[in-house]
């Protein structure tokens, strides 16, 4: 058994009481999981055993011997949408992990990438996500360093990433292997030059990305803004029910819909549909409203608060609030009165707040060809797995997600969970209609 082996290894390597204590703790946790599985045989389905394997693997990095703290990897500024930036960041982390190096804290971009480089507004990672928390949560797996940690700034080796069709996944991997050995490995800093890390070849399974995402915790200021928005949504939900019991409004459920109906998305998705020969990517406003309205269990409710996450600036027509069936009470930022919260911040932070609001919703509905939606579903799937439910696709799960671009039961949207055992993040970065429910 993998774990037993790890513990023995630690002991062989002279691990003291701390390590053996750690081993005992892990055995205890595993024992609890096994006992639980025995006591509740219903849970022991394929999904449950997959989840167990996922949890175990996910925890194993803490048994690792750590990442070198005196060798660094430097990457170019990270660009594009919030979630492309998150994927790019994770890819940079996993590249550093492969080279057994600490990643020098990269710059993100506060504005959306419009090719004009001077408008990119670099923003340091630690202005958005907690730096120390990241290193704490990802300890032994990947590490972030500061430029002030460098000993000798002259020892920098440039690694030129290739591009184009001839630059295959295998060549990219070979290059990384080469740079993790011999004289290359002696340099204090390896600096990757080339395009945005989001476009680098992918060599890592979904669970490795998920592990990095788990360590990304928003800084207090931003998460408090998200708290405010979530409270607003829940409180309008409670008022529209005529419920004056202020103590209970924290529990008023809401549905979040990531509505992609802006002009530029519509143009992009039509092209994509043509290229992939499908009609399951673009959904009109009408189709979204209809499918959300058909979600099982919602129809019987008297009032359902729906938060519409829309890119307001790109939306030419704000009629997204019209056309909802009776019982559905749609809100966007303006109607909710939270525009002021958002307008204080640049694009990246606004997007991070919206992400958080969707993440915490009781039901999330998005588009499976959107990176934003896909990462939310990935995080919600992780939450579900941690709760240890019996079936991720059942009808009474906590944190359910749906894709409105694919038709599911009763003309509703399709149930959606991320396949954590997928061997690459490709599906999430570029969209898919195989959504594993
Ligand atoms: C990384 O380097 C550390 C320190 O040299 C070493 O103990 C560890 O085994 C290395 N990790 C990997 C994955 O090679
Ligand atoms: C930094 O590295 C360069 C090249 O290896 C070396 O010549 C120089 O003496 C080093 N400086 C310090 C302060 O270690
Ligand atoms: C917005 O769209 C609706 C229906 O699609 C249409 O009736 C309305 O005229 C549009 N409004 C504007 C300002 O374009
Ligand atoms: C999840 O991914 C694995 C590995 O690619 C694959 O074998 C499995 O069939 C997928 N599961 C689902 C439900 O799509």
From TrEMBL:
MF (Gene Ontology): glycosyltransferase activity
GO annotation (BP), single: fucose metabolic process
Key words of the record: Carbohydrate metabolism, Fucose metabolism, Glycosyltransferase, Membrane, Transferase, Transmembrane, Transmembrane helix
Transmembrane regions listed in the UniProt entry: 21-44
One Pfam family this sequence matches: O-FucT
Family per record: Belongs to the glycosyltransferase GT106 family.
PANTHER family cross-referenced by the UniProt entry: O-FUCOSYLTRANSFERASE 23
Protein name (database record): O-fucosyltransferase family protein
Gene designation per UniProt: LOC101508156
